[in-house]
Amino acid sequence: MNAGRSDTGRRLRIALSKGRIFDETLPLFDAAGIRPSEDPEKSRKLILPGSEADVEFLIVRASDVPTYVQHGGADLGVVGKDVLMEHGAEGVLEPLDLKIARCRLMVAGFPETDLSTSRRFRVATKYTDCARRHFARMGRQVEIIKLYGSMELAPLVGLSELIVDVVDTGSTLKANGLVPLEHISHISSRLIVNRASMKIRHARISEIVDRIADAVNAVNAVRPSPDGS
């Protein structure tokens, strides 16, 4: 399907990924009256009907959510800000911060690491573009090493001096003798919308966004953000 194409005869499609984001998104969607008819953790289906007749859910990898929304395979999606920062968000609107799945994108390493030196650090990360942009802003020369998991292992075996990764509680860093060294960005999950879909189905999508926004506001009125973000 080409970017910008939208078929008004089909159901409105919402792209979600399994895992933490889905678990924290579902209560918001429940409060907004929009939910999958089946549990994606138990179902093998990749397209699930919604509780409303004109809505269905696509179950995709988290990193693929922006692609499905950008190219019109889905009209809306929920994705972490880290994915949007790394993979770009051209062709999508970002109308709502859901204020869930919060964490921080950080530079981390051993406690004695001095980032003020002129040495050329090796940095292990799956966020290669984010890391390059960050270190360029700081005026530092680095070598980026792409990894897909277990970032904390890289400094332990001498593969890198630093890592760039999302940090929640910091317990995994601490367990491996590492500490956060530099903050890059606060991360939370965002509702994104295909630009063409918003034009063609403006009233319906705006209604859904407003209902989810009301749910987010209700939750955060009871449980305000600890960091104010």
Structure commentary:
This protein is α/β, with parallel strands linked by helices and 229 residues long. The protein folds into 2 domains: 125 residues, Periplasmic binding protein-like II (D-Maltodextrin-Binding Protein, domain 2, 3-Layer(aba) Sandwich), CATH 3.40.190.10; 83 residues, D-Maltodextrin-Binding Protein, domain 2. The protein is built from 8 helices and 11 strands. The strands form 2 sheets. The chain has a 6-stranded mixed β-sheet. The protein has a 5-stranded mixed β-sheet with strand order 8-7-9-6-10, covered by helices on one side. The chain is elongated, with a radius of gyration of 19 Å. It starts with 11 loop residues before the first strand and ends in a 7-residue tail after the last helix.
Q: Which percent band covers the strand fraction? A: 25-35%
How many strands, which pairing sense, and closed or not: the largest β-sheet? 6 strands, mixed
Number of helices: 8
CATH superfamily of the largest domain: Periplasmic binding protein-like II
Shape: elongated
Main structural class? alpha/beta
